[in-house]
DNA sequence: CGTCACTTTGATGCTGATCAAAAATGGTGG
DNA sequence: CCACCATTTTTGATCAGCATCAAAGTGACG
């Protein structure tokens, strides 16, 4: 691991409160590794050997059953993931693959569990982080059960617009195929959804999105802080 | 609060490791209260003032948007709920109501947060409990995105059969209306799903269920530990 | 024993999946 | 830099799954 990566990682909410010495201890058995796009990091059902942190690139969490596959979430820097499995010493419930060229910190789960047992700063930070992750997942679950596919697309566009500076135009961060799975629909359906949203001022040119009738789109989407606000 | 309730509660995984004195401190500001069925305990969007523990009865966690309502989970004794909101000092993302006559421990969230900051036994226990809750939710989310309504019903029946002793017959624990919402479908559809499952050996007489062709039902349902095993 | 909520049944229509194929895009090697 | 290939995206046609609306049947409880 490059020494100049460390400060960057130490700044994570997860580690920032730890004593330097404790942090050094945690990280000494860890790897910081580069991956090309499309690499499978782990597969659901495997024992959770590592806790991961994305520091560059993007990671897709996905799950399969019955010949179907769906995306549970997409992680951007800087985010720790698979915390619950690592804490519980249980099998991964999701698989993970890199979407882009990515840089990941891999902390052996046994070491991590050992340290969460003894370092209360760390335990508290992990608890906060996991609580945040839990709430994110509740929102995703609510969205899935309470909204139609078209509403999910509309709200996704509104969230992404806000996230990229509320300029009224932005760039899709992922392939439409992956976006479709994240939104719980087929690529064909997503394409048609974009078509239907034209009358609500949505223009799609490749990955470039323009929202020209925000009001109308919001009337359709009916966003709510209790699903759409990432800080809530 | 009745003094003889305390030992019962102290036995919760959440509290069992705490020192007696700390536990007394936590519980001194708490209420242990009886509720009739159908009482709304709190509503999504409200600040999380209490952490709850069901000690008797059943509690339904539900959420609304757009005139739609869905059930996120149903809790039985003895379970702490709404941990993430209490930890995060954030608004509830779900509403809760009693389904039966119920007995609930209500711990002021501020007190709870205060103590998780200072008692590392408690912090660790909360972390474990929350990690378990997170994994339960991941399973629910996967089920929702990866299975059809009929498959969800079939798998629910298999899980419930196992939970009630694998006798091949058992009793539905909730109104079919509520069960339908939990499974992400309408009551009409659940009724029809039961009809379709007759050819797989499923008999429904009121709340009494009999499974006479387990093999066939499993062939249809394709249960997997990574969704259906509560201990995984 | 009447009322109210829950459940079932039937008819119909919308939402979204599937299948097939054309069009667009992006990366690669010549 | 261009031609080619593989992949992604779009478009069209069709179908299955599930919701909705309406109404009858059932059961619990005052």
Topology:
The structure is a homodimer of 232-residue chains.
Chain A: H1 6-10, H2 20-28, E1 31-35, E2 40-42, E3 50-56, E4 59-65, E5 68-75, E6 79-81, H3 83-88, E7 95-98, E8 102-108, H4 109-118, H5 120-146, H6 149-163, E9 169-171, H7 176-182, H8 187-196, E10 202-205, E11 208-211, H9 214-221, H10 225-228
The first copy, chain A, binds a DNA duplex (30 and 30 nucleotides) through residues 148-150, 175-177, 185-192, 195, 206.
Question: Any overview of this molecule?
Answer:
The structure is a homodimer of 232-residue chains. With 232 residues, chain A is α+β, with helices and mostly antiparallel strands. Chain A has 2 domains: 3-145, Jelly Rolls (Sandwich); 147-227, Orthogonal Bundle (Arc Repressor Mutant, subunit A), CATH 1.10.10.10. Chain A is 44% helix and 24% strand. Chain A contains 10 helices and 11 strands. The first copy, chain A, has helices at residues 6-10, 20-28, 83-88, 109-118, 120-146, 149-163, 176-182, 187-196, 214-221, 225-228, and strands spanning 31-35, 40-42, 50-56, 59-65, 68-75, 79-81, 95-98, 102-108, 169-171, 202-205, 208-211. In chain A, strand 4 and strand 5 form a beta hairpin. In chain A, helix 4 crosses helix 5 and helix 6 crosses helix 9 (214-221). In chain A, 38% of the residues are buried. The mean pLDDT of chain A is 95. At the A-B interface, strand 4, strand 5, helix 3, helix 5 and helix 10 of A face strand 4, strand 5, helix 3, helix 5 and helix 10 of B. The first copy, chain A, binds a DNA duplex (30 and 30 nucleotides) through residues 148-150, 175-177, 185-192, 195, 206.
């Amino acid at each position: 691991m490059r020494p100049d990566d460390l400060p960057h990682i130490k700044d994570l909410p997860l580690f920032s409160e730890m004593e330097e010495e404790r942090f050094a201890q945690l990280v000494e058995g860890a790897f910081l590794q580069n991956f090309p796009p499309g690499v499978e990091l782990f597969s659901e059902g495997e024992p959770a050997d590592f806790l991961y942190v994305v520091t560059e690139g993007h990671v897709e969490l996905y799950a399969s059953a019955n010949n179907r596959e769906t995306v549970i979430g997409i992680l951007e820097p800087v985010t720790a993931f698979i915390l619950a499995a690592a804490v519980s010493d249980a099998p991964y419930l999701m698989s993970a693959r890199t979407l882009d060229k990515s840089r990941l910190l891999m902390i052996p789960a046994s070491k991590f569990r050992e340290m969460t047992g003894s370092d209360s700063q760390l335990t508290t930070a992990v608890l906060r982080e996991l609580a945040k992750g839990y709430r994110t997942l509740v929102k995703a679950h609510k969205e899935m059960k309470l909204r139609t596919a078209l509403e999910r697309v509309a709200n996704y566009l509104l969230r992404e617009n806000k996230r990229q500076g509320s300029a009224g135009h932005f760039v899709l961060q992922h392939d439409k195929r992956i976006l479709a799975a994240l939104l719980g629909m087929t690529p064909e359906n997503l394409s048609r959804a974009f078509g239907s949203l034209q009358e609500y001022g949505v223009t799609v040119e490749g990955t470039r999105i323009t929202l020209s009738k925000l009001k109308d789109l919001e009337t359709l989407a009916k966003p709510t802080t209790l699903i759409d606000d990432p800080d809530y």
